[in-house]
Backbone:
């Protein structure tokens, strides 16, 4: 029996940056640099890493929202694209498949149309995918708002009349209302106060069990994914550097970068986070000229060999993968 719902193979996406410190030389940023993983049906799979490591680019590539340079993605037995074979799903088939692949965004305010009422926001997908007609759309939208903790009395309100946590509940109801199989949650709690974060994670956990959902959960904060995810992939500058079950990753982190993430105290506010850590131009330049491990210049365990040879992701123990010369 094949329980895999999503298969990502050798995904690559680069951006050519115009601004440059090196005269006229172009800077190529390998935002996603050969990423492969699978997600099982009903699993919650986390992508974790600092700002700019390629989490959102990976998610947008999987959802077929951007064109990639290389790789293959299969969802629920269908090929969304296979760059080697120059194969891509038709826009019509992709549009149908969007019902099964939903997304919850980081910023619940920016992602909700300010001119639409809560029930209209949730009802849009219901109408598009013909899941109800006429007044049935309103009733169904109300139902999903209530499931997500928004009283139906409030269904006529606009996004600005809700709190941040409530807005995120509307965003979740919008995704849930089309009865998807798979949800990408891209930093769904990063913009919320810590007290509200736990409520939203609890809601997602309840929905996951109630509707047998599969999640790709993106976060910069390992503490958030700890309570939600079955397996965790740690990303660094476009690569997965460690992949393990949540239990293994927390009890036995192996990659020096994972250890660093676990030791660091995350800054909770996203605006502060952006200031503290984003991919710097010097790192992009380093990445372009670097033939070895991308973590080399930050790694306290680095040896000479790490400078010249890229480490591949290898299985160290059952289900525990790591890309580090120290462990291979
Ligand atoms: N359209 C674009 N044009 C140029 N560079 C881009 C574009 N989109 C993303 N990037 C760059 O690609 C890298 C990966 O970006 P991405 O948004 O995937 O990171 P992320 O891990 O989601 O970060 P964050 O935690 O801040 O959301 C970053 O350096 C980013 O600046
Ligand atoms: Mg992102």
Residues:
């Amino acid at each position: 029996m094949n329980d895999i719902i999503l298969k990502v193979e050798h995904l690559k996406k680069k951006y050519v940056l115009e601004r440059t410190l090196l005269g006229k030389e172009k800077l190529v940023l390998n935002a996603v640099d050969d990423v492969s993983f699978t997600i099982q049906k009903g699993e919650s799979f986390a992508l974790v890493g600092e700002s700019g490591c390629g989490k959102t680019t990976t998610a947008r590539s999987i959802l077929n929202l951007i064109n990639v340079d290389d790789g293959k993605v299969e969802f629920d037995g269908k090929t969304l694209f296979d760059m080697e074979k120059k194969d891509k799903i038709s826009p019509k088939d992709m549009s149908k498949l969007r019902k099964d692949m939903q997304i919850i965004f980081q910023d619940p305010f920016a992602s909700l149309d300010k001119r639409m009422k809560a029930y209209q926001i949730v009802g849009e997908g219901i109408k598009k995918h013909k899941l109800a007609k006429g007044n049935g759309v309103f009733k169904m939208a109300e139902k999903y708002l209530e499931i997500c903790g928004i009283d139906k009395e409030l269904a006529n309100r606009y996004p600005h009349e809700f709190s941040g946590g409530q807005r995120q509940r509307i965003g979740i109801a919008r995704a849930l209302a089309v009865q998807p199989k798979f949800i990408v949650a891209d930093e769904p709690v990063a913009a919320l106060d810590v007290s509200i974060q736990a409520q939203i994670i609890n809601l997602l956990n309840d929905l996951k069990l109630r509707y047998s959902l599969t999640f790709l959960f993106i976060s910069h904060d390992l503490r958030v994914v700890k309570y939600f995810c079955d397996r965790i992939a740690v990303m660094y500058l476009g690569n997965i550097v460690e992949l393990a079950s949540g239990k293994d990753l927390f009890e036995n982190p192996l990659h020096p970068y994972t250890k660093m993430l676990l030791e660091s105290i995350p800054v909770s506010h996203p605006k502060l986070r952006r200031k503290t850590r984003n991919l710097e131009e010097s790192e992009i330049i380093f990445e372009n000229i670097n033939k070895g491990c991308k973590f080399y210049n930050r790694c306290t365990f680095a040896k000479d060999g790490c400078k010249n040879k890229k480490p591949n992701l290898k299985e160290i123990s059952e289900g525990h993968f790591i890309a580090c010369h120290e462990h291979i």
User: Anything to note?
Assistant: Residues 271-276 have pLDDT under 50 and may be disordered. Residues 55-56, 186 surround magnesium ion (ligand 2) (CB under 6 Å). DSSP finds eleven helices and 13 strands in the chain.
